[in-house]
TrEMBL record:
This is Calcium/sodium antiporter. Keywords: Membrane, Transmembrane, Transmembrane helix. The chain crosses the membrane at residues 29-47, 107-124, 130-148, 160-179, 199-223, 235-253, 259-278, 290-306. Pfam families: Na_Ca_ex. It is a multi-pass membrane protein. It comes from Haloferula chungangensis. Residues 4-143, 165-304 form the Sodium/calcium exchanger membrane region domain. Signal peptide: none annotated. NCBIfam families: calcium/sodium antiporter (TIGR00367). It is found in: Membrane. InterPro entries: K/Na/Ca-exchanger, NaCa_Exmemb, NCX_ion-bd_dom_sf.
Length: 308
């Protein structure tokens, strides 16, 4: 049991390192292809920090661990808003970008509702996965098109050489694959040892572990005063998790989401809804809102864990 816990901690480190390599390489490739820094932040960074969720959920779906595949996404989205934005806003109140209020936060709420509707029958069929996946492509195209139309290229961007950036991407994917292997295998072992469901493990331990890149990115962004990074990273990751991660995982193998309760889906929806008035209130997420988010997550954990 101790070795499984240590290997799980090691997997968190590998997932963090792998996502960092992937994000750096992806940004380098994107800038070399002429994308603006704004587009890179809205897409590559947000999606890159969600790469652990993608790798873990796809692997779990492939080997038939549907509870982990879905629990990972739902738990990560709750964790991203309640814990990551909660901690980031405690460090420094998060100023809210007008575009995030007007476009991205409402889209995230709509995507959350779509995800819950898809999960009503506790199953995600391949055709539903295709719908989610295509929606992620459309959203990304929309963001890139809108950002290119309303922003100028960065003159001071100094992207790394293309072959170096590609090397970072490949190395990141390799480390992520290894980290996901360790995380899924040992989390399943601990779930069986503790007598809790795979869904609970996915909603808590795995969700927190795969959200480490988002946590690091948002907290560092808050410390350095880059509120747009902290908020945009979380919103973009939550959209990507439902549309792309669940979509691709269910295309590979139809998902049966046993173990996911109305409490979990309610917490997912409530966290997305709560973010909207917090953003509109003074156009910032303050420390008081951060405390509310963290307290809400504590209540959710108290309701969740005994059911295993």
């Amino acid at each position: 049991m101790l070795s499984a816990a240590l290997l799980t901690l090691l997997s968190f480190v590998l997932l963090f390192v792998g996502a960092e390599l992937l994000v750096r390489g992806g940004v380098g490739v994107a800038l070399r292809l002429g994308l603006t820094s704004l587009v890179v932040g809205l897409t590559v960074v947000a999606y890159g920090t969600s790469s652990p969720e993608l790798i873990v959920s796809v692997k779990a779906a492939f080997i038939g661990q549907s509870g982990i595949a879905v629990g990972n996404v739902v738990g990560s989205n709750i964790f991203n808003i309640a814990v990551i934005l909660g901690l980031a806003s405690l460090i420094k109140p998060i100023a809210v970008n007008a575009t995030a209020m007007r476009r991205d936060a409402p889209v995230m709420l709509g995507v959350t509702v779509l995800g819950i509707l898809v999960l009503l029958d506790s199953t995600i069929q391949r055709w539903e996965g295709v719908l989610l996946f295509l929606s992620s492509v459309i959203y990304t195209w929309w963001v890139v098109r809108d950002a290119r139309k309303n922003s100028e290229p960065s003159d001071d961007a100094k992207p790394m050489k293309l072959w170096v950036a590609i090397g970072f991407v490949m190395a990141g994917l390799g480390v992520l694959a290894l980290g996901s292997q360790l995380l899924v295998d040992n989390a399943v072992f601990m779930a069986r040892t503790w007598g809790v469901s795979e869904a609970v493990i996915g909603l808590t331990i795995i969700a927190a572990g795969t959200s480490m890149p988002e946590l690091a990115t948002s907290v560092v962004g808050a410390i350095r005063g880059h509120s747009d990074i902290s908020l945009g990273n979380v919103i973009g990751s939550n959209i990507f998790n439902i549309l792309f991660v669940l979509g691709l995982a269910s295309i590979i193998h139809p998902i049966h989401a046993q173990g996911l309760s109305w409490t979990d889906q309610g917490a997912l929806l409530l966290s997305a809804i709560a973010l909207l008035p917090f953003m509109w209130s003074g156009r910032q997420i303050g420390r008081s809102e951060g405390l509310i988010l963290l307290a809400g997550y504590g209540i959710y954990l108290a309701l969740l864990w005994p059911k295993g």
